[in-house]
Specification:
Structural class: mainly alpha
Number of domains: 1
Largest sheet: none
Number of strands: 0
Strand content: under 5%
Number of helices: 3
Low-confidence stretches: none
Mean pLDDT: 87
Order of helices and strands: HHH
Length: 88
């Protein structure tokens, strides 16, 4: 993957992270999973585990997107300072 491809990918990640619908859906789904875990019958550890595993997956997705965005910000700073050239 070229530096330009990485910048485009990071830009796409940033757009997702700033998209109000995406942010709201992720927040609401995570909240719903927590509610389902709390409402699960006392003896249903498996249901709680599945819900909390899904929360973990959501958070990892968000973290991966944030990492892509951070990499782009870092690359842009290096380019602006003259540390990298020819990425276009």
């Amino acid at each position: 993957m070229t530096d330009r491809d990485k910048m485009i990918e990071a830009g796409d990640a940033a757009q997702l992270l700033e998209n109000p619908i995406f942010v709201r859906v992720m927040r609401e789904y995570e909240s719903s999973l927590f509610e389902r875990a709390l409402e699960a019958p006392t003896r249903d550890d498996e249901a709680r585990y599945r819900c909390l595993t899904a929360v973990t997956v959501l958070r990892k997705i968000r973290s991966a997107l944030e990492s892509k965005k951070f990499d782009a910000d870092k690359s842009a700073d290096e380019i602006a300072k003259g540390g990298k050239s020819g990425w276009l």
